[in-house]
Amino acid sequence: MPPLISSVLCTATVPGFDPATRDLTLVAHHLISAQLAAASSFHPDHLILLERPPTSPYQSTERQDPEQGGRRRRKRRKLDPEAATPADWAGEREKESKLSTADRETRAHHAFISPSLEGAIGAVREEWIRTRSSPTWVGDLEDKVVWMERERSNEGKEIDWVAAQKDVEEGEREPLRLDDADSGTVALADLFGRLVFAPPILSRSLKISLPKEDSPIGPETADLSATLVLPPSSAFLLADFATWSSPSSGIATAGSDRDGWDLMLLDPPWPNASASRASAYDTFDAYDLWKLDIKALLGNKGPCLIAVWLTNKVKFRRLVLEQLFPAWGIVETPAEWYWIKITDGEDGGEPVWGLDGVHRRCYEGSVLGYYNPTGATLPPLPLSKTFLSTPLGHSRKPSLIELLRPHLPNPPSRPPNVLELFARTACAGPTHSSSAARGLWLSVGNEAVKFNVLESDTEGGVKGWLKEGRVEPSD
Q: Are 38 and 53 in contact, with CB atoms under 8 Å apart?
């Protein structure tokens, strides 16, 4: 097992305001390495392939924006109050008059949180510059990451997991439990609709065969197989959203067999223009979240912390806080944490988009609350927190497990169990503080192992997000 390395690079503690008690308090903000967190699931013999983070804010140069599918963005001109003419101001007033109610609420919310975000950015940057042991803002990634170019040498295609599931017959399937021995090759169609469990201690490679006809990576592909690298104590379920709450999915049983789920993470594919332009993933109707039967998924064994990633549209924030959380039985004041995307490099640490930007935001929020059917006493949850990191790539979120660990309700006698919905990576199970034991991390979604695919070394083979072998030392 590789040594455990913290992805929290530094912490800055600043005065803050507790909206629940209306008292002054101390709030901890952090610089984290999303890259270190992602790499920590995998053995050093498997390096993760990542896009190199930006070294300057997107709006400061004519650089390509990865969230626009690589297209160049035209810089928007801001109105200069000193040089503006009456006609300019009239144009601004006309634009304001055409804003929808949702857009006005979004701008008002941004104006409300911007001062605290700005203070957190300044405090964390100052702390890291004062104490840092690395000139970068990503931590020590040696022997962990391979930076990939936008145009990769492998001319093959990625597996289209969504398309591959469309013709698979529905039905209950027995779980696949991988051991340390070679289990041979598994057909791609045999992975859908069944739980797959990796061994509890060691990583496991699983070879899958791809159909030649209607191959999800294209019929012209030479290599008709792919390899999944599954971290220790990980599990996944490739299944459609509509089936997750069914007892036949096995999600509830997997949790109850291990004394319950302690953390449920959700990163729903919210409808937004960026995802549509980049064609990065399928979005869905936000009201479909009501189809999730939380009681069926989590049971009544004990409490569970639920964390939901949001976009910056206030209507989705309001939907979760005012409707979805109450419907799920989350009645205590929810927490709101914010992720600031920053630049890398010796002079990095700046937001990738200006905090005063109107059309693009440098942050994404998450809301957190406890599902507590038994009324158990819960660890305190900070109602506000800001953490900075360089981005991983379009729509990929940093792992929050290290920040959330002190607030999980699992007893000290065992490691926590994590259920991640809308997942795209099977992650290593969380470790126990005093032993080598790991909890289970179950990744569920129609692309639940997208980033566990090993890059093929065959010309025209499968494109993946992991590379075999250690990084060669530079001269």
A: no
Q: Are the C-beta atoms of 174 and 193 separated by less than 8 Å?
A: no
* Local confidence band at 473 (pLDDT 50, 70, 90 cut-offs): very low
Q: How far is CA 367 from the centre of its chain?
A: 14
User: Bridge-partner residues for 370, per DSSP?
Assistant: 305
- Strand order through the sheet with 234-238: 8-18, 23-32, 384-389, 335-341, 363-371, 304-309, 263-266, 418-421, 441-445, 234-238, 195-197, 176-177
Q: How far apart are CA 340 and CA 116, in angstroms?
A: 12
Tens-digit pLDDT profile for residues 129-184: 999 878 899 998 888 899 987 555 556 788 999 988 887 777 778 999 997 555 67
Q: Can you tell me the distance from the alpha carbon of 387 to that of 363, in angstroms, rounded to the nearest whole number?
A: 10
Task: Count how many residues are written for the chain.
Answer: 475
Taking 80 as the threshold, does the pLDDT of residue 472 lie above it?
A: no
Which of 148, 41, 184, 65 lies closest to 463, judged by CA? 148
> Which residues make beta-bridge pairs with 339?
364, 387
Q: What are phi and psi of 340, to 5 degrees?
A: -100, 125
**The tokens 């953390």 sit on which residue?**
263
Helix (H, G, I), strand (E, B) or coil at 46: strand
Quote the mean pLDDT of the chain.
Answer: 84
Q: How far apart are CA 16 and CA 243, in angstroms?
A: 43
Q: Exposure pattern of 34-52 as b/e (b: 16+ CB <10 Å)?
A: bbbbbbbbbeeebbbbbee
Check whether 67 has a pLDDT greater than 60: no
For the chain, helix (H) and strand (E) counts, in that order, are 10, 18
Residues with Cβ < 8 Å from 1, sequence gap 6 or more?
A: 201, 202, 232, 436
Question: Cα angle at 393 between 61 and 207, to 5 degrees?
Answer: 150
Q: Which amino acid is at 8?
A: V
Alpha carbons 284 and 211: distance in angstroms, whole number: 28
pLDDT per position as a tens digit, 222-236: 558 899 999 999 999
Can you tell me the distance from the alpha carbon of 249 to that of 199, in angstroms, rounded to the nearest whole number? 20
Alpha-carbon distances of 281 from 19, 210, 269, 448, rounded to whole Å:
36, 21, 7, 12
Q: Which residue has the tokens 């800055």?
A: 12
Per-residue pLDDT band at 461 (split at 50, 70, 90)? confident
Cβ–Cβ under 8 Å, residues 313 and 100: no
Which of 72-86, 329-343, 424-438 is predicted most confidently?
329-343
Q: pTM score > 0.85 for this model?
A: yes
